[in-house]
TrEMBL record:
This is ABC transporter substrate-binding protein. SUPFAM superfamilies: Periplasmic binding protein-like II (SSF53850). Coiled coil: none annotated. Belongs to the bacterial solute-binding protein 5 family. GO terms for molecular function: peptide transmembrane transporter activity. One of its GO terms (cellular component) is periplasmic space. Keywords: Signal, Transport.
Length: 539
């Protein structure tokens, strides 16, 4: 936020249905649709208007995974591929727009005290929850109290900073923190319907949540699909769709998603690799859209989080493992131009990113020398990963490529691929040793404080316990002024580049296929996950 002392709503922009379209030719000469303000699919006749009520009232999206498959928008914060649930069923106090700007949602205005410890938040009036109840400050308080439960792992750092929550009146709430907390309002979990929650209890709420987003949870068939229905009383009419039902169909096999979009069983196919995209080239009814630099494919050395000795705790060993990987070859061959070599754990969109840093080169000879000098000539460990993830296309082939390069310098690595739910549960519980593969979405790490998830002692997916990094992130989190945040974030950017607790191997584009029933859909920049489905309309 550019002005954390006070931000007020000055009006909403009109719905960005369409953007100017330009043809982008990739390495495979694919025709990709891209827009200046985010990719969009044009209407068939080129008109600027989408029908108020579509002929097609159901759109089906084929997704590789919804990871833990949480229906609850607050619990969905625990897993990246459940972002469509978090965004659709939940409506936060502050949300990100398609260009990743933070904009008011259920909060309209907020200010912080002179000591940066007490936040006064004004709430939007006239908002309905999915059960028809009126949204009030009580719903914010209920959601904050919920995440104090240890089950909400990703909110652990948030909870530690909350001193108290005081309801001033129905549309004003005061949140006191233990330390200055610049992202407090943005990080606060989406409000939930208090009376309903108290009536059904935590277990039943998770099965059928009630919040305030543009889509209501309808039903779920575990490991198969989740169905959402349009919430007609949603407060922001610009984000209300013109069709009534959205089905998220879990299809782990990419060839089946490809077949589904070709036969019309799917209206959107997510997570396509370049090979699949090539098969859709020239289709008169199917469009390809991309979100550029949507995520970074990382290898994190989680042995650095534990007390036991490990060769992976040696910075020169980690440097050797980076130098051993021909990252350009992976970007060009495996991802066929839809991937690029990253310089650092931060991206150009990240506040404080140090643009002067140079990418680590491919130098297998130096890698061998560093390993020998460190007494790690016979290094071996396990590389754990999910067998499917939206954030990293062809994740198992990616792992095989990395392991292959390591083998060439004498490192023996065993690959351990698991289903996403099992893998992420083990990762957040710190039950994995050696190394792990995780994707970091651009939309997340545009805020450098979010890197604390991976690089601080208490982070949900932490790979390291390092007092210096903990101190840097603590200073960043407690600094309110934007310029001061950028300076600290620059220090972090350089520290992560130097220490290589995680290897940012390549950044990847997200590729979607969109079928003929879709009238318009604008994507969020830097987003590898399905959705958000705010600006999606049917024909």
């Amino acid at each position: 936020m550019s002005n954390l002392r006070r931000i007020a709503v000055t009006g909403r922009s009109s719905r960005p249905r369409y953007g100017r379209l330009t043809a982008v030719v990739g390495a495979l000469a694919l025709s990709l649709v891209a827009a200046c303000s985010g990719p969009a699919v044009p209407s068939a006749d080129g008109s600027a208007e989408v029908p108020a009520s579509a002929t097609n009232q159901t759109l089906t999206v084929g997704v590789a995974t919804l990871q833990q498959q949480y229906a609850d928008p607050v619990l969905a914060n625990e897993g990246g591929n459940t972002y469509p649930i978090k965004w659709s069923v939940g409506e936060p106090l502050v949300r990100q727009e398609l260009d990743m700007r933070q904009v008011p949602a259920l909060a309209t205005e907020w200010s912080v005290s002179a000591d940066d410890l007490t936040w006064d938040v004004k709430l939007r009036q006239g908002v309905k929850m999915h059960d028809g109840s009126t949204f009030t400050a009580k719903d914010v308080q209920t959601s904050i109290n919920r995440v104090k439960d240890a089950a909400f792992t990703s909110y652990a750092a948030y909870v530690k900073k909350i001193a108290s929550v005081e309801i001033v009146n129905d549309y004003e709430i005061k949140i006191k923190t233990t330390v200055p907390y610049a992202n407090l309002v943005f990080d606060t979990p989406a409000p939930v319907a208090t009376d309903y929650y108290n009536r059904v209890g935590e277990t039943e709420f998770r099965k059928k949540p009630v919040a305030a987003g543009p889509w209501k949870f309808d039903s779920q068939v575990f490991n198969d699909s989740m169905t959402l229905t349009r919430f007609d009383d949603f407060w922001d009419k610009d984000r209300v769709a013109n069709f009534s039902k959205l089905v998220l169909k879990i299809i782990p096999d990419e060839s089946s998603r490809l077949s589904g979009i070709q036969t019309g069983q799917l209206d959107i196919a997510q997570g396509l690799t370049p090979n699949s995209a090539a098969q859709l080239q020239g289709s008169p009814t199917i469009k390809l859209v991309t979100s550029k630099q949507a995520s970074v494919a990382n290898v994190f050395f989680v042995d650095n989080w534990f007390d036991a000795d490990s060769k992976l705790k040696d910075a020169n060993v980690r440097k050797a493992l980076m130098l051993a990987i021909d990252r350009k070859a992976i970007a060009d061959s495996l991802y066929r131009g839809f991937g690029t070599v990253t310089v650092n754990a931060t991206l150009p969109v990240t506040l404080g990113n140090d643009a002067s840093l140079q990418a680590w080169p491919y130098d297998p000879n130096q890698a061998k020398q560093l390993l020998a000098a460190a007494g790690a000539g016979n290094l071996s460990f396990t590389l754990h990963l999910y067998n499917q993830t939206t954030a990293i296309a062809d994740v198992q082939k990616f792992a095989e490529a990395v392991i292959g390069y390591w083998k060439e310098v004498g490192v023996n690595v065993t690959m351990d691929a698991m289903d996403p739910a099992t893998y992420l549960d083990k990762a957040v519980k710190h039950q994995l040793t050696g190394a792990v593969i995780l994707g970091t979405p651009g939309l997340l790490i545009s805020d450098p404080e979010k890197l604390s998830i991976f690089y601080t002692s208490t982070g949900g997916y932490s790979s390291v316990k390092n007092a210096e990094l903990d101190g840097m992130f603590a200073r960043l989190s407690s600094t309110v002024k934007r310029d001061d945040q950028a300076k600290i974030a620059g220090e972090i950017s350089r520290k992560l580049h130097e220490t290589l607790y995680g290897l940012p191997v390549v950044s990847l584009d997200a590729v979607y296929a969109v079928g003929p029933k879709v009238a318009a859909w604008k994507l969020m920049e830097g987003n590898p996950y399905p959705g958000p489905f705010w600006y999606l309309d049917a024909k």
